[in-house]
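Cross-posting from the modeling subforum.

Setting up a comparison between two proteins and wanted a second pair of eyes on the formatting. Protein 1 (sequence, then structure tokens):
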Amino acid sequence: MTYKELTIADVLNDPLIRQVMRADQVSLSGMTNLLQDAAHRLNSVKTLRGKAEIGLPGGVNAIVASAAGNETWWPHQLCGR
């Protein structure tokens, strides 16, 4: 069985996800911001990992920590709660 990766639009239009958002009082704009930020962070880490594999000093851990800004990030910070 193959699975298709959901796009942000797919997630936001899924009826079950919308019900959970309603139950958790998460706004559509908050969820959109959360997903876009997560995608951006994931893409940044993937890009930096690729650079680390070609021999940048400090290795992947240093680069990932730098990309994360050495800060604790909680998803609810972007959900309008």
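Protein 2 (same layout):
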Amino acid sequence: MTLAQELSVGEVARRSGLAVSTLHFYESKGLIASRRTAATSAATCAACCGGSR
């Protein structure tokens, strides 16, 4: 996997063992970055989850 790939928030939660709500909380605090796609309105997270806003 390259760093340019994106994962769904659910996939990040599954891989990390964190709850989706935890990831959304981290996003709200600016600790991780995500974007929502127009097609699905689903949050996606950079593979490293350390991107800046």
